[in-house]
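Batch job 17 of 40 flagged for manual review because the log was empty.
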Amino acid sequence: MKPSIHYYNETAGLTENRYLNYINGEWKPSSTGAFIENINPATGEVLGEVTQSAAADVEEAVQAARAAQKSWRLVPAPERAEILYEVGRLLKERKEHLAQVLTSEMGKVIAEARGEVQEAIDMAYYMAGEGRRMFGDTTQAEMPNKFAMSIRVPVGVAGLITPWNFPIAIASWKSLPALVTGNAVIWKPANETPFMAYEFVHIYEEAGLPKGLINLVYGSGGEVGEAMVGHPDIDIISFTGSNEVGAAINEKAGRMLKRTSLEMGGKNAITVLEDADIDLAVDGILWSAYGTSGQRCTACSRIIVHKSVKEQLEEKLVERIAKLRIGNGLDESVDVGPVINRSALERIDEYVRIGVHEGARLLCGGRILGETDGISGGHYYAPTLFTDVTADMRIAQEEIFGPVTALISVKSLEEAIEVNNSVKFGLSSSIFTRDVNRVFQAMRDFDTGIVYVNAGTTGAEIHLPFGGTKGTGNGHRDSGVASLDVYTEWRSVYVDYSGKLQRAQIDNN
C-alpha cells in the first residue's frame, strides 16, 4: 500500500522524487551531487532519493542562519509565536497525509503515526503560547532605588540532529522552542525519513517563517553531523540518538565550550507487583514493548515481576503476543510493523542469540519473519519474549531497539527497585500496583526521568519535560517549559536610579 502522496508545490524541494536541502529559503541539491535511496521498510520499495551533503553545505546554512537570527531575535516573541500557531494549523490540516508519509518511510502502524503527528500539532500550539509566557523574574535589589530582574535571551544558532523513529515529533520538540525563543535552526534529519523533514520544513515555509531561520541539510552523521558539531558559529547542538554518538558529540562540543542537549538510550522496565491488575499490566507491556516495533527510547525491554505472579503474567503475555497482527503499518488491522532496515533486523537477531546463549528461556518469537510467515518484502521481526532472565545478562543491560523484552523475577519491591536502577540508562520506568504506599516509594526511588504508575513506559505528554538521567542524557529536557532553558541564556539586569554609585556586597560600616 502506498500513501496518498500529494505535493503542495510540485517544484519545491522535490525533483523527480529527489529530496533537496533547504537553505536560506531555497530548495537546492547539495554541493556533492550525491543521492541515496529512501526505502519503505514494509515493502522494500524505493520511495525516492535524498541528497547527501558535506561541510560546504553546512557552512552555507550557518551563514544564512547567522544573518537571519540577527533580525529574528528583535521580533517580539508574541509575533514570532503567530507563525507557530500557523504551523500548528497546517499540521492539523494535513494530519492524515503526514501520517501516511510517516508510516511509509518509518514503518510504524498508522494509528501510531497519527498520534505522532498530533504530538507535533500539540507542541506547535503549546510553544506558540510560550510566546506570551516567556517569563523571567523580578526581585528586590539589596540597595535603595535600584531595580533587579532576569530575562531570557536566545542562544543564537541551534543545530538539531534528529532520529528516524519519531521524525516529526522530536523535530517539533526541538525546532519549535528554538524558534519561538528567537534562535535560527540548522536541522539534520535522519536519512531514513527525508520526506517527513521535507513536509515539516515546507509547512514552516508556508506558515511565513522568514528565510534563513530554518535550514534543512540532509546527509550522514559523519559528514553533516560532524561539521555541525565542530562549527564555531553553531551555538548549541540538540541531539537525539545513541549513547555512543551522543558521547562523541559531547566530547567534541565540550572542547569548544559549546552547549549540548543530549537525549540518548533507554533500558526501561515495567515492574509488576503481586497485587497488580495483571490484565492491565499485560496491556501496558504489549503497547510499551511492541509498539513502534520496540524502536523507542522509552520501549519496555525489561519486565520486573514478583515471583508469585510470574507464571500468570507469562501465560497471559504469550497468549496475547500470539494474537498480534504483523505487517504493513498502512493496513489499519496491523498491530506491529517492520523494523527500519536490514541491519536492524540482524542486530536484533544477534541479541536474541546472545540471550539464548546466556541461559534465558525463549517463550515466543526470536526470529526474522519472511515468506513462510506470509510476509514478502520488508524487514519484520517476530515479537519476542524471554523469561528466566537475570539482571546482569546483556539482554537485561543493553539497549536492543527492537520488539524484544525480558522477564526478571524478584521477591520484593525493594529488589525490584534495585533491578530497575541497575542499568546505565535512566529514561522511563513503570510500576503496576494497587498499593499507594508502594507507588510513592517507587516514585521516590526509581532513578529515571519519567515514572509511570499503572501504565506502560511510553506516552509522554508535550507539556511535561522529556528526558532522563545517567546515560540517557546530560541534564537538559526536550518538551515542556523546561525546553526553553535549552535554547535561551539567562541575563540579569540591574537598573540603578539612585543617581549615585552604589556598590553591591561592599561593607560600608
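Reviewer: the log was empty due to a logging misconfiguration, but the result itself is present. The mean pLDDT is 95. Unflagging and moving on to job 18.
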